[in-house]
Amino acid sequence: MDRFYNAPGDVVDEILQTAAATAPLCVAEPQSGLRILIRRDWDKADQGRRQVAVLSGGGAGHEPAHAGYIGEGMLTGAVSGSLFASPSVDAVLAAIREVCGEAGCLLVVKNYTGDRLNFGLAAERARGEGLNVAMVIVADDVAIEDAPQPRGIAGTVLVHKLCGYLAGQATPLDEIRKRAEALCQRMGSLGMALSAAAQPGQDPAERSPQLGLGIHNEAGTRQVDPKSADDAMALVLEPLRNALSDRRLSGPWIALLNDLGSCSTQEMGVLAASLLHQLGIEQVAHLIGPAPLMTSLDMHGFSLTLLPADDDVVTALSASTTAPAWPGLRATQAPKAFSPDTHQDHEALADDAPQNATTTAALERIIDVLRQAREELDALDAKSGDGDAGASMQSGADAIAKALQAKHLNTAALPNLFAGIGQLLSRDMGGSSGVLLSILFTAAAASLDQRGNLQEALAAGVDKMQTYGGAKPGDRTMLDALVPAIESLRRGEPLVQAAQAARDGAQATAALTHANAGRSAYVPESALKGVVDPGAEAVARVFEALAREQ
Question: Which secondary-structure segment (H or E) carries 529?
Fold first, then answer.
């Protein structure tokens, strides 16, 4: 199974039943064979006497359109067909009869042949019954130049919002129709997709990236080959702006950025950033989305709608609504930046810091060992983690080396040295190991300031590592080498014995097949058997480097 469907023929009904179960809606009885959703609070003899009812709909597969836009301030109801297929005349007529009161009913229809014919005939039959019905056809797609019948796509949602707002203001039917038609003339939309949509129970069609495709999985007007989100946005923006310019329309704009189905939140965020950058934030007065507004099943693509930010339209789109899928209209502005406070209360890094040749030489041995061990540590980590333990250790070593060369580290005073190393590792090493080692050195520096005992200071640092990191010896981390080595030093044993204790602790991790901390905790036990923990191995090599000159 590739997608979470049951029977392909049940998809639409399951979606509509869920919508009716989670919002104040009434749904047509399933036995009727009609797919209609209506506001539960709507009474055509009451509200319908004062307010125009607004109906929309069309084929399913565009969720949250159209059911997600039913609510006070938007649609009164929606009529759904099967996937990518218009609802029947009978369904549309039944919906009109359900909502149309004395104030009348407006049908908002996307410009597809099936929708125009079925909604149009239903409107004619309703008028024959004495109902006051008008229809607005949305044709916002600019993909096909000089098309006699441009398609209606995501801009339809803006018409829903305008008409719902005007209806709530008790605006007469004919005035709402005129205002909606004027809005349709002032907006344009264009889509792009990297791949086609897949109908439930079917494999997706093999299709290259295309510009100007329709929301019913129609092929685009031309193939494209964007190399980045910026490329994709530029390919959409240029013809869209040209089409609007031909109508003598200009910004600042209201921009609607629509996910066609399967773009991730991150992709849509990057596309929004690209839109603001390329169009200019001063030209995007308001942004709607990025969000799935008028989708095409799981199509991997997006569409952009631009509309001049006229005051009356901004007022309508900003008005409140109970429709659950309306994302709201957000004003844009240049990001306001601030300078983060990164000062240290006791700055341990300084120019021309005092130097101790012996301590400096010891640090240089450690740096050399970690640099040489990078590939081996990465290889160990690749068996149980993400393969970057050696790179992380080297980045920490490189940061210390750079500070030593610039004489920013005070190697003549251990409290200052440890505090400085702590600052460097937290800033430059990255990853959890960088933070943990920074905690070790920072806590050890504080303990040295208070007590002056190196062994106890290191033990205090390890204690803080366990407190904040949550690991303990036996959990298959660097602590399995670090704790035995420091305990050896606390017993007064020479550095050579401490190094051996670290080595023994590191080797013992190869037999630990159940990790309780770090990335190893997320891999099978079989992947850990016989593999030394890379953090523990790095600690052992550091102590061995220190012991070589003793």
Answer: none
